[in-house]
Every structure is written in C-alpha cells, then in structure tokens.
Design a protein that fits this description.
2 domains, Rossmann fold, rod-shaped
Length: about 400
C-alpha cells in the first residue's frame, strides 16, 4: 500500500503545496446556459488545490477556471458561445485536497460527479455527457468513466458518455494495457498509481489520456504498477510536480495542437457527428387561408312605380239655378163703386181676425191665439188701393203727354 505522505503534492504547484486542505461540504457550480439541456455537457474536475482560494463552503463562480494559464479547463472558455449553445460545461466542486486526505478527497469527487451526471441525464434524456479532469481531477474523472462504462451508475448508460479527457492522470495506463484508454501524444510510460481494474470497456476508444513527457504525475519511470519501484516514483513527486505538469497549453501533442487546443477542437468538431443537436421541431402552423366572404351581387332593381293615372276630378255639372218666376198676383179689378145710395154687403160668415205679427219671443208667442183664418182683409184692401193709385198715375201721365205734344 502507499505510505501516508506519498501523494501530498499531487497536481499541486509548489506555491500551493503548503495550503491547508479544503474540508467544505461538497458543492457544485454550473455555467448557466441559454439552453438548459444542451446537446453535450462537459463535467469539469480541477486538480489539487484548485479551490484553496475560496472560503470554506463557497461555490465557485460559473466561469471558474484554474488560476494558471496552462490549465486544461482553458479548452472550455466560451464553449457555449462557440457551439451556438449546443455545448456547455459544469465545474464540479469537490475538496481537491492534498496530503493525507487525498484519497478521501478523490472519493468525494467521484460521489459528487456521479450525482451531478445522474441528475443531468434524468432531466435531459436526449443530452450526452463528456468528462474533463486534470491531475487529481483526472483521477476522479477516470474512475467515474470506468463506472459508467461498466454499467455501475444507475440511469446512465455507457452510450451517454461520449468522450473523456484525462490530463496528467496519475493512473495513466493507456500505453500499458489494452482497454485503458487512447494515448494522445508520444508517451510510453504510465502513472504511478495502480491501474483501474475494470478499464473503460466499450468507451476505451473515446477515453483520451494526455501526458506531457517528463510530467512525473503521469509519466513515471517504467515499473510494474503497484511495485516498489512504482511506489518510489510516487514518492519522487512529494516536493511537487515537475514543470511539465503545468504546460498542457504549450506542449504539442499533435502538429500545431497542445492538449488544451486538441480537446477544444475535438469537442466542437464532434458535436454534430457524435450527438445530433437537440432541437425542438417548430410548430408548423397551417397557413391561414383567408377566404373572402361571399358577398351577393348587389342587384339594383328600380322600384316599381305605379303609373300615375290622372283621373280628372269629378266636376259636378253646373246646375242652373231655377228660374224663379215671380208670381204676380192677378190684378183684381177694383170693386165697383157702390151706387149712390147703396149699402155695403158684408159676408155674414166671415170672421174678422185681427192681423198679428208673431215675433216668436217667449211667452208672448205662446200666449197669442192661433189664427183661425187666412183671410187678411187689411192686406187685400191695401193692394187694391195701391193698384188704383197706379192706374190714376198712368192716366195722369198720359194726359200730360198728349197735352204737351201735338197729336196728329
């Protein structure tokens, strides 16, 4: 077994080797993404001492990256913007402690990473997962990848893990045993820790080990894993890793590409090929066909005007007023003058009734006795006198005429 101080300074820069271990509860911080379920989420695990600058219990900010420029998480800078929101990353906050607590720290990282991946896959069933670990973080990421590849993580099938990037992994065995990952860069040696027994199974071809030559964390002298020589190699890094452990952004592993550049290029280049983008099909709204309302033609029918029948007014015939012929009472011959000495004879049967003009006024009219006869001697006498006078007048005129005018 390994001695107590063996991994004291594993993946810790010399300036941070004496920093006390972090004992805060395991917490995680996510990088907010425009898409809550991107096609790929890269779970990022930092190396030893990465969280020493944070107060205990503090969650790293969403854009948290290791302090030194060569850290592999630089490959994740602006990943969401570069992928159009189809990929993002999530930094796992685990103790990342050095010294004696390193084994407990690594196991705490495995537990927290497993919990975060399980939660993400349950929420985003069509999304995929990638792992990026550096130094102690690579140790954690490699153990989680092994568990997923061997179906030891409920709810997360091996096909969900599409790539794992292990940078400066102290259990690097890619060049020593088949099924333990794909070595990136010309390195033939292994890490100082014993190999993972189960390996990466079907995911071995997409599990990539990055180790700069001379990095004593992953490039130990040839020795059988777990042998006394291997333990001695671990002891050789107690004073801190070699400078090559901090140069993953400068040392080329492919023409023109450092480990950081290689990882970034792989994530973006394989995003569409490995994982089809999660897209919500647009809701196809059938075109709105605007049928104009059927407007019946306006038929202007002139109003039926009945012919004006001019009926001449009925003019009553002019009836000539009746000719009223005045009744001229016959001229009665004046009674013959009685002979001298004769006596006037009066009709004994005649009743003389006094003449009365009926005024029709009130009681006088009622009280007057009704006439009993139409004989008005007074009237008759008057007329006779009048006629007699007229005759005398004519005779007088005649005489005067003849007296003044000579007669033949």
């Amino acid at each position: 077994m390994l001695s107590t101080p063996v991994l004291l300074a594993l993946a810790t820069p010399a300036s941070a080797a004496a920093t006390p271990a972090t004992t805060s509860p395991v917490q995680s911080a996510a990088v907010p993404a425009a898409n809550p379920c991107p096609a790929i989420r890269v779970f990022n695990l930092e190396g030893t001492g990465a969280f020493n600058s944070l107060a205990p219990g503090t969650t790293p900010p969403p854009d948290f990256q290791a302090a030194f420029p060569g850290a592999p998480d630089r490959a994740l800078t602006n990943l969401s913007q570069a992928s159009g929101g189809r990929a993002d990353y999530y930094t796992i906050n685990y103790p990342a402690a050095g010294g004696i607590p390193i084994f407990a720290s690594e196991q705490a990282g495995v537990v927290e990473t497993t919990r975060q991946i399980t939660s993400f896959v349950a929420q985003c069933s069509t999304s995929k997962v990638e792992l990026l670990g550096y130094s102690q973080g690579a140790w954690v990421a490699g153990d989680v990848a092994t568990n997923i590849a061997n179906n030891k993580v409920p709810g997360v099938s091996p096909d969900k893990l599409v790539a794992s990037f292990l940078v400066g992994d102290p259990i690097n065995q890619a060049t020593q045993q088949p099924g333990y990952g794909t070595q990136i860069g010309a390195i033939t040696r292994a890490g100082p820790l014993p190999a993972r027994v189960a390996g990466f199974g079907a995911n071995s071809s997409t599990t990539f080990e990055f180790c700069n030559p001379g990095d004593n964390v992953c490039d130990a002298p040839p020795a059988a894993p777990g042998s006394q020589a291997s333990i001695g190699n671990i002891a050789s890094i107690i004073g801190g890793p070699t400078p090559q452990h901090l140069m993953y952004n400068t040392v080329e592993v492919a023409p023109g590409l450092s480990s950081v550049a290689w990882i970034r290029q792989y994530v973006l280049a394989h995003l569409g090929a490995v994982v089809p983008p999660v897209t919500t099909p647009p809701v196809t709204t059938p075109p709105v066909t605007t049928t104009p309302p059927v407007i019946p033609p306006v038929i202007t029918t002139p109003p039926v005007i009945p012919p004006v029948v001019s009926t001449p007014p009925v003019i009553p015939p002019v009836v000539a007023p009746p000719v009223i012929v005045p009744v001229v009472p016959p001229v009665a011959a004046p009674p013959a003058a009685p002979a001298p000495g004769a006596t006037a004879v009066v009709d004994p049967g005649a009743v003389l009734t006094p003449f009365r003009i009926d005024t029709g006024l009130g009681a006088n009219a009622v009280a007057a006795p009704a006439p009993t006869s139409t004989n008005y001697p007074m009237l008759s006498g008057g007329l006779g006198i009048l006629m007699a006078g007229a005759a005398l007048l004519l005779a007088l005129v005649h005489r005067l005429c003849f007296a003044r005018c000579p007669c033949p």
